Amino acid sequence: MKKILRRTLALGCAAALLTAVGLTACKPNPVIDGDYRTPTAAELAHAVSSIDENALLRDPASDAFGFSIQGDIDLNINAAGDSVIMNGEGNYDIAIPNVNEAGSVGKGSLRLNASQAVDGTAGTYVLSGDVYHDSDNLYLDVVDGTEPYCGKIPFGDLVAILEDLFGDVSGGGVLPMRHVQLLKVPSQETQDMEDMLEELAAAGISVGLDDSAGLKLKFYANDDYFRAIEESTTGGFGEIDFRFQGKTLEVYLYINEDGTFEQFSVYIDMGYSASYPEETADYSMDAQLVIRRSQESVTLPEELYDENEYPPLDPDSWATGLRFDRSGDLR
Description:
This protein is an alpha+beta fold. It contains six helices and eleven strands.
């Protein structure tokens, strides 16, 4: 249990830092209201074919475009007297000066609080600060626990760090749902809409459509989806009884009447238990991610380009609190 708790904590901290998902003190609303109906293949094909890809990221009054990202996460794990409690929030604004050219800039802030009590030993973890990016680097001005990190990481190095970190985590069996794909939509060039709906239905994913004013799509996991997870987990991990108590998993997309992207959001509210031969672990997670169209301009601080203020960060140095050794324990 100690290894599971520690690796879960590492995963949450890494996700909060490396993805820089913005979170605010006020939780975003991920649900896009609409008069959703179950569409036929013909109705869905007509709605999707009406989307003009050239207009999706284009403001009628400007070539500039932007996104506002908000999110939050609350995670609780309890097993045999051990526990992990984690909550985080933040915000991130991305500005694309010209949709006809490559490049964007972004800035945001994040906060992650975590506490664990394992084998009678309590510990806390706090991550907070500001994050920026331009076309070349990710810039960090954060405090990891009590250790400040102020500097930049080239995107080329960041990709390698992510591959190393999440490759280790996913290979260690942290989350029972790691083998399950949330949504797999076949390419329109090779699959027609009827085939897509059949595949989604077979995976336990339902589809809702509201095309009364623009296009609103809702993808949500139904009972078949969660039942398949329970059965595959119980059968694939030996003597484990895996059961959901709460189960909401929804994905929304909204494109307005002008054909311009307005919002993409994900809403997760889950509780489940995994009973092993010697103990039972209870999990609960509440998370929201909202990406909205935005006209916010982004101005990066001039000091980002001062090598003395934001020197290149050694990946092995700044990620020390997030890495773990081959045994799975944090180091």
